[in-house]
Each structure stands twice: as structure tokens, then as C-alpha cells.
Specification:
- Helix content is 20%, strand content 28%.
- The chain is of the alpha+beta class.
- Strand 3 and strand 4 form a beta hairpin.
- The protein is globular and about 40 Å long.
- The N and C termini lie close together (11 Å).
Length: 112
Amino acid sequence: MQKNQAQVLGDKDIYEIAPDIKKYSLLDAGFVEGRNDHFKLQRPISGTSPYDARFLLKISVSEGFSHLRMSITDKSGLHNINIYKGKDTKSEIDDYKFMMNFLEEKNILIKK
């Protein structure tokens, strides 16, 4: 996998940074600019309520839009989780897919 591509643990889809991505597209989609012009998105994944989320979706884009990292973690954000293996995670998987479709529509990511 190339540096501008990423895949969440357990997901068969690989995502790549769109070639025509702009800084303001990331900011409009909810990314936060950090140190060294890195952009990070952290969203709760919950099938019912974002206030009672069991998982977090974390996406990081490096400066120059050359590196992409994605993961789904537990509530604390410390442990990578495979939501495809968990029990009763269909609603969380749907929520994750909805978020990824949103990022595709905003021309931030491309599904490979």
C-alpha cells in the first residue's frame, strides 16, 4: 500500500487521498489543523447517539497531502479495533460507511 493510501482494520476498502484535495476542503469537512500543517479528523462512531459512542474514527493527513492514516479505536483512542469482528456492530459499520461516503462526496478521499 502506498503512503497516500490507508485501510481500516477489517475493512476491505482502501482509500486514497484525492489528487485535487485542498486545505479548505479538509477544514470544511471537520478536519483540524495541527502542528506542522497536519490535519486530523476524530469522529465518534455510534449507531444510535454520538454521545454514547463505543468507537472513534481517526483520520490523519500529513502536510503536502502525501501521507494518509486511518484507524478505528476504542473510546479512549488508544487501541485499534476491528469493528467487523465485534458483536452487534452493524449500526457502527453503517455509521463508518456513511462517514467515508461523506468524505468521498467532499472530494477528500477516493475509494480504490
